[in-house]
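Obj.: predict assembly geometry.
Materials: sequence records (below).
Method: joint structure prediction, all chains together.
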Amino acid sequence: MSPEIIQAIVLTTATAATPLLIAALGELVVERSGVLNLGVEGMMIIGAVTGFGAAQLFGSPWMGVFAAIVCGALFSLLFAFLTLSLATNQVATGLSLTLLGLGVAGMAGEQFVGLPGIKLQPIAVPGLSELPVIGPLLFAQDPIFYMSILLAIGVWWFIFRTRAGLTLRAVGDNHGSAHALGINVLRMRYLAVMFGGACAGLAGAHLSLVYTPQWVENMTAGRGWIALALVVFASWLPWRVVVGAYLFGAVTIAQFHAQAQGVAIPSQFLSALPYLATIVVLVLISSNRRMTMRNTPASLGKPFVPER
Amino acid sequence: MKTDVSQSAAPPPLLAVDGLTKSFGTLKANDAVDFDIVEGEIHALLGENGAGKSTLVKMLFGSLSPDAGRILWRGRPVKIAEPSTARKLGIGMVFQHFSLFDSLTVAENIALSLEAGTPLSTVADEARRLGEAYGLTLNPHAMAGDLSVGERQRVEIIRCLLQEPSLIILDEPTSVLTPQEAERLFETLETLKGEGKAILYISHRLEEVKRMCDRATVLRHGQVVAHCDPRAETAASLAAMMVGAEVEAVRRSPADHEAAGRSRTAVLCVSALDQKPLGPFSTALRGIQLEVHAGEVFGIAGVAGNGQSELFEALSGEQLQHDPDAVIIDGTPAGRLGPNGRRRLGAAFAPEERFGHAAVAAMPLTDNILLSRHASDASAYLSGGRFAVLRHSALGRTLGRVVKAMDVRKSGENPDAATLSGGNLQKLILGREFDRQPVVFVVNQPTWGVDAGAAARIRQTLLDAANAGAGALVISQDLDELLEICDRIAVIADGEMSEPLDARTVTREQLGLLMGGAEPEKHHGVAA
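Observations (raw structure tokens):
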């Protein structure tokens, strides 16, 4: 393979990894607060359809990005209200959120089918993008790519370096004690869930404004689930989410290239790889109890109802 | 005791509670409770489990809201709607069920209860400084999940002190400490009292209360039965106020002790028992050697986290041994047998954790009885051969027997285990095993967090078991308990066991030294 092809593969890998990374970082924050939101797929597709629609309506892809973030957050607010205020089962509610999101997006997006999309143009950083090899890779990407990198750093810094992040981890570790310390558990979780929704919305916008600038029903194609698996794969650590997102992104791209090159690996096997990898990681994590203790939010999925 | 608030001569008490009432359904957990506490006072809150102490404390700390009544802080009525309000007023709390975050470091745990904006490094330094000042040594960078129970309590206390509260509520603080550690805690409390802080001290240990506390408020069934000066009372009269009847101290009679000393039949024989740590927070057992004779109560003292749980699990068969002869029950090598096999040999076990280990909260009492006896008493409770159909009538009869023998207080015929108070559940758990007339009876922390009345009942049961010819092995952190009921006492420290000592002649100091001997950190002099 020529260097150009390799560079193209790496470039497309970044594009495939970006939505996974953003959605997974959002879900990581949600899960660190002790809430399991299985509705990532649904929130993502809502982001994709509102992003596409708003871009069409206002003629600007940036309006699309903005609308996707807002709508993703609003959609997750429904989940937050049900699971936090009404203490419904998080797993069941999250699953319904995915189904609802897919349905609503399919209905709302019917008018967009076949319309030419508006692409969010790449931004080349002057000077740096001229650098050989890494220039086009790191400094001539679409804006959401830059956002995803900043987001990864920001989430790490927030969780491990700020007081609010410490509170977030405390709420996820032991909500009863957090409440006793005077921490507003529900507010923290509402904010975390909405952050997760906003991230999923942005990830969806990346799909309909950058990855394939058009609207296709079910265009998230299971990426929300991969993002969920990624969080566990990364054992709730942001830097591992970055590694995992690029690994899973690379697998997706490898599928296309393998098919193009006529390599006899069934594509189904490659699409199943992220999940297989997650299962392997789950086994590894649970065999190391110390590691589990340190990073798994102990209250994950448990409803919090303060006694009164 | 009431003073006229308008008088400037006598300042109002720091905290006064007036007619505080809280109901859960039909149960009045607190019924018109009143008491007050002044600065520079150690005030005891006494009462059996379920008397309403926790409810009262939760209302003071804002985790529960009262149905009626007033809380006055420095003479002004306040509404404590949530814990943060209590902390702003200056009320600090050291919880009984430690409320640390296991996955966070000590410094992070402490930082969470401080004002936002305190950098972590400052917290670590401050924690270290306070720790040294009050004799509570700590490593701020250790993970809370790695700490022993005693260390966790130190974190709780320091966390509380860092907020500079005027009122400190301590819930059962000494239950996890060696006598020497408790001694240091008392010094800490005296220092705090000298600084003018008020301390609300909740404890079952009446001797401590008599020694430490200036006044006491006694609760029974949610009502205040007495305000008294504990120094003017005896432990027996305090216990009588709590229970509403005289509690007789349970003691091993000298005659039984003599008889036990003559017994040579070993019913439980442990030799060269080694066990690797089972996890990151587990202690290794090294060369455990012991022999419990028929008719004897054998005590194992030690500070929490020195291998007691591991030893219990090794004896109960939850952890198997390689060598069948490492554990011999009633003459039969049992090292390779699981819990059911060992129970069939006549051994009975009552673990420390009541829920999750000894009983299932969401199951009715009869099912909980079946849980530990389904194998050893299969013929009584199961019928239909391989189909193993439950015989509810037989289980019901056993429950009736246990309830009667142990005086278990419950609501309804066969309620869920979750509805029983700690003391009553513990009585049921011990009664369930005692009812089998075991040959060997192994119990771990039998009276942990249990009220005086229930504790007396449980200790009597252990003595009864020994008098009936069983060998009782009692693992406990409560030295008084061991000294009262045991014939011989050994000490476990860092997974190693001392030679057994005669309980009649051994002193608390000797035991205390053995208990502290293998403690990982040596304590340096207290900085003034």
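Conclusions so far: The domain at 3-295 of chain A is CATH 1.10.3470 (ABC transporter involved in vitamin B12 uptake, BtuC).
To do: check interface contacts against the pulldown list.
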